[in-house]
Write a structure and sequence with these properties.
Elements (H helix, E strand, L loop, with lengths): L7 E7 L3 H6 L6 H14 L2 E8 L6 H13 L7 E2 L7 H6 L6 H10 L15 H20 L3 H19 L3 H14 L1 H11 L12 H7 L7 H10 L2
Parallel strand pairs: 1-2, 2-3
Helix pairs in contact: 3-6, 6-7
Length: about 230
Protein backbone atom coordinates (compact mmCIF):
# COMPACT_ATOMS: atom_id res chain seq x y z
CA UNK A 1 0.00 0.00 0.00
CA UNK A 2 2.83 2.40 0.79
CA UNK A 3 4.58 1.68 -2.51
CA UNK A 4 1.28 2.11 -4.36
CA UNK A 5 0.94 5.66 -3.05
CA UNK A 6 -1.34 5.26 -0.02
CA UNK A 7 -0.86 8.28 2.27
CA UNK A 8 -2.28 6.89 5.51
CA UNK A 9 -4.46 4.16 6.99
CA UNK A 10 -7.04 4.29 9.76
CA UNK A 11 -6.86 1.72 12.53
CA UNK A 12 -10.07 1.14 14.49
CA UNK A 13 -8.21 0.39 17.72
CA UNK A 14 -11.19 1.53 19.87
CA UNK A 15 -9.70 0.40 23.19
CA UNK A 16 -6.45 -0.74 24.77
CA UNK A 17 -8.34 -3.12 27.05
CA UNK A 18 -8.78 -6.67 25.82
CA UNK A 19 -11.88 -6.98 27.98
CA UNK A 20 -13.48 -4.07 26.12
CA UNK A 21 -12.51 -5.43 22.71
CA UNK A 22 -14.20 -8.71 23.65
CA UNK A 23 -17.34 -6.90 24.85
CA UNK A 24 -17.42 -5.00 21.55
CA UNK A 25 -17.24 -8.36 19.72
CA UNK A 26 -14.44 -7.01 17.53
CA UNK A 27 -12.69 -10.38 17.25
CA UNK A 28 -9.42 -8.48 17.74
CA UNK A 29 -6.49 -9.23 20.00
CA UNK A 30 -4.18 -6.55 21.35
CA UNK A 31 -0.97 -8.29 20.13
CA UNK A 32 -2.35 -8.14 16.58
CA UNK A 33 -3.24 -4.47 17.00
CA UNK A 34 0.30 -3.79 18.24
CA UNK A 35 1.74 -5.65 15.26
CA UNK A 36 -0.30 -3.53 12.85
CA UNK A 37 0.89 -0.29 14.43
CA UNK A 38 4.49 -1.49 14.37
CA UNK A 39 4.22 -2.54 10.72
CA UNK A 40 2.86 0.87 9.73
CA UNK A 41 5.73 2.63 11.46
CA UNK A 42 8.28 0.25 9.96
CA UNK A 43 7.27 0.93 6.35
CA UNK A 44 6.72 4.67 6.92
CA UNK A 45 2.93 4.61 6.65
CA UNK A 46 1.18 7.42 8.53
CA UNK A 47 -1.92 6.33 10.38
CA UNK A 48 -4.94 7.50 12.34
CA UNK A 49 -5.79 5.40 15.39
CA UNK A 50 -9.45 5.75 16.30
CA UNK A 51 -10.60 5.20 19.88
CA UNK A 52 -13.93 5.33 21.62
CA UNK A 53 -15.01 5.54 25.24
CA UNK A 54 -18.21 4.69 27.04
CA UNK A 55 -19.09 1.28 25.63
CA UNK A 56 -21.23 -0.83 27.99
CA UNK A 57 -18.84 -2.39 30.48
CA UNK A 58 -16.37 0.52 30.41
CA UNK A 59 -14.83 1.22 33.83
CA UNK A 60 -12.09 3.37 35.26
CA UNK A 61 -9.80 0.34 35.04
CA UNK A 62 -10.45 -0.30 31.33
CA UNK A 63 -9.79 3.38 30.57
CA UNK A 64 -6.54 3.17 32.57
CA UNK A 65 -5.54 0.10 30.53
CA UNK A 66 -6.19 2.04 27.34
CA UNK A 67 -4.04 4.93 28.55
CA UNK A 68 -1.19 2.54 29.33
CA UNK A 69 -1.57 0.94 25.89
CA UNK A 70 -1.42 4.36 24.24
CA UNK A 71 1.66 5.40 26.21
CA UNK A 72 3.48 2.17 25.43
CA UNK A 73 2.76 2.63 21.69
CA UNK A 74 3.34 6.40 21.57
CA UNK A 75 -0.31 7.09 20.71
CA UNK A 76 -2.64 9.95 21.51
CA UNK A 77 -5.98 8.98 23.00
CA UNK A 78 -8.52 11.18 21.14
CA UNK A 79 -11.74 9.21 21.56
CA UNK A 80 -15.35 9.65 20.56
CA UNK A 81 -18.14 8.69 22.92
CA UNK A 82 -19.86 5.46 21.94
CA UNK A 83 -22.82 6.33 19.74
CA UNK A 84 -26.18 4.61 19.37
CA UNK A 85 -26.66 4.45 15.62
CA UNK A 86 -30.15 3.41 14.46
CA UNK A 87 -30.66 -0.31 13.87
CA UNK A 88 -27.29 -1.32 15.33
CA UNK A 89 -27.24 -4.28 17.72
CA UNK A 90 -26.55 -2.00 20.69
CA UNK A 91 -29.39 0.28 19.61
CA UNK A 92 -31.91 -2.55 19.89
CA UNK A 93 -30.62 -3.50 23.33
CA UNK A 94 -31.35 -0.06 24.82
CA UNK A 95 -33.94 1.45 22.46
CA UNK A 96 -36.56 1.44 25.22
CA UNK A 97 -34.51 4.04 27.11
CA UNK A 98 -34.85 6.64 24.34
CA UNK A 99 -37.68 8.90 25.47
CA UNK A 100 -37.18 11.90 23.16
CA UNK A 101 -36.81 10.85 19.52
CA UNK A 102 -36.60 14.42 18.19
CA UNK A 103 -33.69 15.11 20.54
CA UNK A 104 -32.03 11.81 19.56
CA UNK A 105 -32.08 12.50 15.81
CA UNK A 106 -31.08 16.13 16.32
CA UNK A 107 -28.10 14.95 18.37
CA UNK A 108 -27.10 12.43 15.69
CA UNK A 109 -27.22 15.11 13.00
CA UNK A 110 -24.65 17.26 14.81
CA UNK A 111 -21.90 14.59 14.66
CA UNK A 112 -20.07 15.91 17.72
CA UNK A 113 -19.42 12.63 19.49
CA UNK A 114 -16.18 13.78 21.11
CA UNK A 115 -17.88 16.51 23.15
CA UNK A 116 -20.96 14.94 24.61
CA UNK A 117 -23.05 11.80 24.63
CA UNK A 118 -26.77 11.33 24.13
CA UNK A 119 -26.94 8.43 26.56
CA UNK A 120 -24.45 7.08 29.07
CA UNK A 121 -24.28 3.33 28.39
CA UNK A 122 -21.93 2.54 31.28
CA UNK A 123 -22.45 2.05 35.01
CA UNK A 124 -20.39 5.18 35.62
CA UNK A 125 -22.03 8.47 36.55
CA UNK A 126 -22.17 10.95 33.65
CA UNK A 127 -19.76 13.27 35.42
CA UNK A 128 -17.31 10.45 36.12
CA UNK A 129 -17.32 9.30 32.50
CA UNK A 130 -16.55 12.82 31.28
CA UNK A 131 -13.80 13.20 33.89
CA UNK A 132 -12.27 9.89 32.83
CA UNK A 133 -12.20 10.98 29.20
CA UNK A 134 -10.50 14.29 30.00
CA UNK A 135 -8.02 12.53 32.27
CA UNK A 136 -7.14 9.95 29.61
CA UNK A 137 -6.72 12.51 26.83
CA UNK A 138 -4.54 14.77 28.98
CA UNK A 139 -2.36 11.86 30.16
CA UNK A 140 -1.48 10.74 26.64
CA UNK A 141 -1.00 14.31 25.40
CA UNK A 142 1.33 15.08 28.31
CA UNK A 143 3.34 11.92 27.61
CA UNK A 144 3.72 12.96 23.95
CA UNK A 145 4.71 16.53 24.80
CA UNK A 146 7.09 15.94 27.71
CA UNK A 147 9.98 13.52 27.51
CA UNK A 148 10.82 14.38 31.12
CA UNK A 149 8.60 12.27 33.40
CA UNK A 150 8.70 14.95 36.11
CA UNK A 151 7.06 17.44 33.75
CA UNK A 152 4.33 15.11 32.57
CA UNK A 153 2.15 15.43 35.68
CA UNK A 154 1.93 19.24 35.75
CA UNK A 155 1.46 19.23 31.96
CA UNK A 156 -1.39 16.75 32.32
CA UNK A 157 -3.05 18.96 34.96
CA UNK A 158 -2.87 22.00 32.69
CA UNK A 159 -4.19 20.09 29.71
CA UNK A 160 -7.03 18.65 31.77
CA UNK A 161 -8.02 22.12 32.94
CA UNK A 162 -8.13 23.24 29.30
CA UNK A 163 -10.31 20.28 28.34
CA UNK A 164 -12.74 20.96 31.18
CA UNK A 165 -12.95 24.60 30.12
CA UNK A 166 -13.57 23.63 26.50
CA UNK A 167 -16.50 21.43 27.57
CA UNK A 168 -18.31 24.58 28.68
CA UNK A 169 -17.41 26.77 25.70
CA UNK A 170 -19.72 27.55 22.78
CA UNK A 171 -18.88 25.57 19.66
CA UNK A 172 -17.21 28.46 17.83
CA UNK A 173 -14.87 29.20 20.77
CA UNK A 174 -14.09 25.53 21.18
CA UNK A 175 -13.13 25.21 17.51
CA UNK A 176 -10.84 28.23 17.76
CA UNK A 177 -9.10 26.80 20.82
CA UNK A 178 -8.79 23.36 19.25
CA UNK A 179 -7.28 24.70 16.04
CA UNK A 180 -4.88 26.95 17.93
CA UNK A 181 -3.61 24.07 20.06
CA UNK A 182 -3.36 21.59 17.20
CA UNK A 183 -1.42 23.98 14.99
CA UNK A 184 0.99 25.08 17.72
CA UNK A 185 1.70 21.94 19.72
CA UNK A 186 5.42 21.13 19.47
CA UNK A 187 5.01 17.48 18.56
CA UNK A 188 2.91 18.38 15.51
CA UNK A 189 5.57 20.84 14.36
CA UNK A 190 8.05 18.02 14.79
CA UNK A 191 5.87 15.80 12.58
CA UNK A 192 5.93 18.43 9.83
CA UNK A 193 9.71 18.84 10.06
CA UNK A 194 10.26 15.10 9.94
CA UNK A 195 8.02 14.79 6.89
CA UNK A 196 9.86 17.64 5.15
CA UNK A 197 13.19 15.93 5.86
CA UNK A 198 11.98 12.69 4.31
CA UNK A 199 11.72 10.73 7.56
CA UNK A 200 10.21 7.38 6.55
CA UNK A 201 9.01 6.30 9.99
CA UNK A 202 5.22 6.16 10.08
CA UNK A 203 3.53 8.36 12.67
CA UNK A 204 0.10 8.87 14.18
CA UNK A 205 -1.80 11.83 12.78
CA UNK A 206 -4.91 13.31 14.36
CA UNK A 207 -8.27 12.83 12.62
CA UNK A 208 -9.95 15.69 10.78
CA UNK A 209 -8.63 18.41 8.51
CA UNK A 210 -5.25 18.68 10.25
CA UNK A 211 -4.69 14.96 9.95
CA UNK A 212 -5.39 15.06 6.23
CA UNK A 213 -3.02 18.00 5.82
CA UNK A 214 -0.21 16.15 7.55
CA UNK A 215 -0.95 12.90 5.77
CA UNK A 216 -0.56 13.97 2.19
CA UNK A 217 -0.83 16.62 -0.48
CA UNK A 218 -4.62 16.54 -0.81
CA UNK A 219 -7.34 16.77 1.84
CA UNK A 220 -10.21 16.36 -0.61
CA UNK A 221 -12.33 13.29 -1.16
CA UNK A 222 -11.25 12.00 -4.57
CA UNK A 223 -13.99 9.40 -4.99
CA UNK A 224 -15.54 11.15 -8.00
CA UNK A 225 -12.12 11.66 -9.59
CA UNK A 226 -11.28 7.97 -9.10
CA UNK A 227 -14.63 6.95 -10.58
CA UNK A 228 -14.06 9.11 -13.67
CA UNK A 229 -10.60 7.59 -14.12
CA UNK A 230 -12.01 4.09 -13.93
CA UNK A 231 -14.78 4.87 -16.44
CA UNK A 232 -12.38 6.45 -18.89
CA UNK A 233 -10.11 3.40 -18.78
CA UNK A 234 -12.87 0.91 -19.64
Amino acid sequence: MKRAGCHYVLFGVESGSQRMLDLMEKNAKLPAVSAGLSAARKVGMNFISNFMIGHPGETAETVRQTVEFCKSHRLLFLPSYVTLFPNSKMFHLVVSKIKDWAKYFDWLSRVDYSRNFFMNLTELADRDLMRLRNWAVSETLAAALCANALLQRPAAWLLRAGLVASDHMPNWARRLLRNFLLYTLPFLDLFKKRAAQGDRSGRQIPPGDLGQELAGPSSEDTYEESLRALQSST
